[in-house]
Amino acid sequence: MATNKADLGAAPLVVLDQGTFYFKTNPTNVHKLVTTNNIIPYMRLFEAFRYVQGSLFSHELLVDVLAEQAVKTEQQLLYYLVHTCQKAVLLPETLCCFVLTEGHQLPAFKWEEAYRYSNAQSFVQAIKQSDYHEEIPDRIQLTIGVDDGLILHLEALVHSLDKNTDTPIDLYIIYASLTAESISRVKFINDKLEAVTLILRPIPKESRQFIENINMDKARLPIGTYFRIIVPEVLTDLDRVIYLDTDMVVNASLKPLWQTPLEGNFIGACEDSLVFYHRRVNAESVLFGKQGERYFNAGMMLMDLKLMRQYSTSFYSAQLALDTADVIKYADQDVQNLYFYGANKQIDLTYNYGLEYVQYTDRPLSEVAIIHYYGWKKPWMNMVTETFMHPSRRPAMHLYRQYHNEMKAILGDNPDVISVILTADQAQSGEFERCFEGFLTQTYTNLEILIVTAKGLTSDLQTYLKTIKPYYPNIKVVTGTMAQAVKQSQGSYLYFFNIDDLLSEKTALAQLVAACQQGVQVVYSGYQR
C-alpha cells in the first residue's frame, strides 16, 4: 500500500473448507485500482469485498467514514471506505485465509438502496427537480457507428428506414477510419435514398482518446463497440439523437419513438432479452443481480445529447469502462447499464425487438417497429450449415434479407439476372432447405430460382416454399422438363443445380458472373462429394 500511496487495500483470500484450500485470485495480477466505479461489481464477484477482514486501511479514513455514515454491516463499511478514501487498491497477494465452518460462512452480497453504480442517478434526480425542459426537433436524427466491415451490412438498415419512414430522416454515420472505397459506397447509397440522408461524420482524435485505452481482451470485440459512449462528443451540433446498431431493420415509422419524452433521463432504451431469459429460467445476472431486471440492450438508445454533454457522461462512462474492463462481459452494454442505472427511461420493446422475443412471444413481425439481430447468429449466415435457427425466428431472418436484396436491386449492384434451375424430383426431406440457404445467402442477389419437377413437389417442400416466397418473389415452380424451365427463364445467365446439393461458397455466383464478363460463354467449377 505504501508503494502505491493508497490508504485502503483489499486482497484476495484463500478459503479453507473441510481440509481443502480454495484460492480466490486477483484476475488482473496487478495492483488494480478500486474505485467508486467498480466497487459494486467487485463486491458481487470477490468475497474479499464483502467484509473488512483482510483489508487494510488508515485509522483516519475509518474515523471519517463512521462520522458521516450510519454503517450497519462490514460490506457497507467497505463500500463507504472506497467512496471516501484517496486511493484504494486490490492487491495481487493472497493475505488472508477464511476458515469455513457451520457458523462461519462467507457473506453473500446484499444490495442496499443507498448504493450507486455511478453519479448518473444523482444527476437525474437533480435534473427532475430543476426546471429543465427538453426540446424535440421536428426532423428525426439517427446515428450509427461503423467500420469498413459494417459498411457491407448497411443496405438492409438504410433501405428499411427509407421504405417505412413517414418523415425525413438524417442518419449520421460516425467512424474512426474508413477506406476511400467505403466512403464512396456510403455516398453512392445516399444518392439512391429518398427520405433518408446519410451524413458521414469522422470521430475527432480527442473523442477517440476517451475509449482507446479500454482493455478489450475479455470482451473480444472491436473498440468501435464503444462509439456509443462518445456520441455526445462527436455530434456536438445535435441535442437529441436515436442511436441504432447496424444489424437491425426498421419496420415502421420512428416518429413515436423520436417524440418520446425522456423526462430528465439521459437515455431511453429497451429491455434486453437476457432479462427475459432470466425470468424464464428463474435466474439472475451474475454482474447485476436483481438490479439486472432493468438491464437494457444498448443497440437502440434515444439520447438527450444536450444533457449528456452538460453532465460529461462520455467522460464518466469511459472512466467506468476502464475501471471495470476485467469483470464485464458485454463490453460497452454492461458499461452503459452500470453508468445509467436509475438514469434511463424504459422504452416499449417494439423499438428493439430481439430474436428471443420473436421466438417466445406472440407479437407479429408486422407490429414490431425495429427488429434487432443481436447475438452471433446473423441473417447473412446459412441457417442450416452455419448455424441452427429455430423455425419461429426464420421469418425475421428472411425479412432482413428481403430488405437487403431490395436495396441491392435499387443500387444496381448485380444488373444481370441469373436463372438458377433446380431439379427437384429427387428432393429429400431436410436437404432442400440447405440447398436454398446456399443461394439465399449469396453475395450476388439478382437471382431467379426455377424449381423443375415432372411429378410434383413433396408436401414438405411445398410448405417450405409457401413460407419463404413472400420474401423472395422470384422463386417459381415449373412443372415439366428442364427445357421448359429454360424457355421460361428470364436471366442473362443460366445456372443448373440439384436441390439435394449445397452451394457452400457465398461468393460462388459472383465469381462465375465475373468470369463470364471476361468474354467467356460457359464457366465450369469444381465440386466435392
UniProtKB/TrEMBL annotation:
Pfam families: Glyco_transf_8. Keywords: Glycosyltransferase, Metal-binding, Transferase. The keyword rRNA-binding does not apply. SUPFAM superfamilies: Nucleotide-diphospho-sugar transferases. GO terms for molecular function: glycosyltransferase activity; metal ion binding. InterPro entries: Glyco_trans_8, Glycosyltrans_8_dom-fam, Nucleotide-diphossugar_trans. This is Glycosyl transferase. It comes from Ligilactobacillus agilis.
